[in-house]
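User: Predict the structure for this protein chain, please.
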Amino acid sequence: MSELKTVMHPLAQSKLTLLRDKNTNKKEFRELVSELTALLFYEATRDMSLKEVSVETPFSSCTCNTLNSDIALVPILRGGLGMVEGIVELAPNAKIGHIGLYRDPNTLRPVEYYCKLPKADDSIEIFVLEPMAATGGTASAAITFLKERGFKKIKYICLICTPEAVAKIRSEHPDADIYTAAVDRKINEEGYIIPGLGDAGDRMFGTR
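Assistant: Here is the predicted structure, written as C-alpha cells:
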C-alpha cells in the first residue's frame, strides 16, 4: 500500500496557512507555492539511494555520496507548472516533462491532450506535481499514463488533497507514495476542496 505522508514541518504548515489566506496576492502566492513544494520535495527524496564517488578537494581526495538515480518532474498542466521552480532550485539537473489533461464532459474521465516526457529508464524517479487533489482522478490518470510509457518509480506531490483523492490513488496505484501538506475534509458541490485555498491555478496566474 502506498504511503500518505503529510508534512507537518513548521515551515511547511506556516506557508500553507499563508496560501489559504484569500488576501495573499498573486506574487506572494506564487512564491509560497514554490517554497512549499520545495519542502514537500525535500521529504519525498528522503529515501533516495546514494552512491559513492571520489572527489578531489583543494587539499585532498575523499569519498563522498551523490544521488544514485536521475530525477524527473512531471507537472500536470496548468497548476503543476507553478510547483516546478522550487524543486529545480534544489535539483537543478532534474528533467522536466509535462502532462495535459481535461475532463470529458460526457464520461467525466480524464483525457490526455498533451504529453512530453523524458526517456523512460528503470532508475529514474518521477515526481508528479499537482497543487490540489480533489477527487484524485487527474492524479491517478497521470500516473497511469506514466506507467504505460515505462516509468516505474513514481511519487505524487500535492499541496492539499482530500480523503477521496488519497483513497483513489491508493486503490489504483498502491505503489505510488503521496506527499502533501494537508488532507482537507471534503469537496463542495462546485468541486472545490473545503477549506482548501481556492483555485490554485487562478490564484497563481491571475485568471478566473
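The mean pLDDT is 93.
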